Amino acid sequence: MPVKVSVIIPVYNPGIYIEDCITSLQRQSLPPDEYEVIFVDDGSTDGTPARLDALASEDPRVTVVHQENSGWSGKPRNVGIAAAKGEYVMFVDNDDYLGDEALERMYDYGVAHSADVVVGKMAGKGRGVPVELFRRNHPRASVENAPLIDSLTPHKMFRREFLDEIGLRFPEGRRRLEDHVFVTEAYLRAGNVSVLSDYVCYYHVKRDDASNAGFQRFDPVGYFKNLREALDVVDRYTEPGPVRDRLHRRWLRIEMVERMRGKRLLTAPEEYRRELFREIHGVVVERFAPGVAAGLPLTQRIIAALIAADRLDDLVAFAEWEASVGVRAEPGAIRWEDGALKVDLTAEYRAADAVMTFPSSPAGAATDGAPKDVTEAIALVGADTVTAFGKATADLLLRERSSSAQYFQSVEVTREMVPVGDGERVRLVLRATATIDPATAADGVPPGGGLWDALVRVRLGGWTKECRLGPSPRKGDAAAPAGVPADRVVLPYWTAKGQLALDVDRATKRLGLSDLTRATVTGDRLSVPVPVYIPGETTVVLRLTAASGSVDVPGTLTPDGDGSVLEAAVPVAELEGTPRRLALCLVPGADEPRFLPLPFGLRAGSGTVQVVRPPVPGAVRKLARRARRLLGRVRRAAVNRLKARRA
């Protein structure tokens, strides 16, 4: 069978962090004979070489190449390409891991769209990853119609014949940004690039000890020398004009402006800050045409202008103000409608933990040059934010807590200028209603079981800010009744910090079933009001358990206001004698059905059925233990007081 994908992993002293990578490669859904794994050990000095050799002896898919340390990841990746047999090559770092279906999905998507490059959706575990690029699938993407240039890490799939045809390899040696040079040229010379956004393919992980290569402080001189090489690639394959400016803007924005703003600038040691600034200033004045900075939002444009004007002190002062700016999203009504969860929220910017206000009638236009001082810069930002308010956006994302995978939800937004005081200033308030449909919330499919956090992402005034939705004073409580749409038990709840989250197929006590107080039996029909939302009549299973065994009977949930009513026919003849405890399964078709206990049982006799409260096992013993502990504390306190008097 021809090899479809060769996975290439450069390795250097990963220690235990390589284990998740290995495990994810071994459990890929692509058939084992259709992919190979090539580890290129770049002179590791820990136990990794022996670990990989043992793995290769057990797994025929695995090849290990050992070499002397080359200083960075470029040469190991090139060695892997030379050894690869696959139609596509996929690059993975030794401390990251893949989604279980990543290789199969990316390969099939690439073949279906004749892609030279396939970009799979990424999730960042403690690391930043592109967000806007993965809003939707892009079967035919380019640097002109999609924000590809925001994703320059090498963690993608490349058609091997394409790499050989154009002679593309990674720069080698002890250096930085070799991936920028490689990926940028691949984008610009590819016949097609496909972006797969409906499945998380790659998990980009920050180590607990933050020892990933990308987190180490770099030498500014060498770093920006290597950055110029990436700009050279753009210049080689584009003509002067809007496309080149837009591509150059990526490096100005991410590698320069973002390093010279807010907390990132303020936390850098002063001498290192000045060294960074010198190198960034040099690139800005040497390499960027006027159209590069002109396409930035005003806030970033001001920073770029201060860099070009060689005004580091003003940059620091502006950063001190900008570091105080954040966003806060406050929850409104949360309710179920038509099988989906509706979440109302308001969001607005805050500075120094106070609501930001803006001029109601902004005057003056922002200039292309640097502002005369920081006061003018702040005034320009305020006026521009009001002017651009009509384009402000608010999104709600669900982020899986265990994996950091995140998904955009449908949101309707309205914008409101709220006058303050005499009306000369206004608050800029975004009001939104998000719709979370459990049938499609994870890019068209139901979310997996586990905990999901709600995040709000606001774009306004040159900032993109994220925050959790909250706080609510009802910390730890349910935010709305649990719902059972799409064969999932979904409970909206407030975390211990009062932030909105969803519990999918895990909640027990928070569902409120243990608090039920009413249950009636008429003939053989049991009826119980249940605090669970359902979009329509739903089949459930009721389990009746005694020491002699259990009996499962079908039941139905019927909508009733915000909740539902459980009804089931009780098999009276089978219940004679011993009382039966009750448990309810809300999703009988689940792979692992969960039966949730109800706070009462049934007793049958003489052809009738009664609802009873079963004794709680061990309740008396628990009460006795608590009494003994309390008595012990009282005795110890008395002894301590007596000793104190004697002293």
TrEMBL record:
Source domain of life: Bacteria
Has the keyword Endoplasmic reticulum been applied to this entry? Answer: no
> Coiled coil located at which positions?
none
Tell me where in this chain the TarS/TarP linker domain is found.
220-319
For this UniProt record, the keywords arranged alphabetically read as follows: Transferase
InterPro entries reported for this sequence? Glyco_trans_2-like (IPR001173), Nucleotide-diphossugar_trans (IPR029044), TarS/TarP_linker (IPR054028)
Could you cite one Gene Ontology molecular function of this protein? hexosyltransferase activity
Residues in Glycosyltransferase 2-like domain copies: 6-135
- Protein name per its UniProtKB record: Cell wall biosynthesis glycosyltransferase
Q: Which organism is it from?
A: Streptomyces lincolnensis
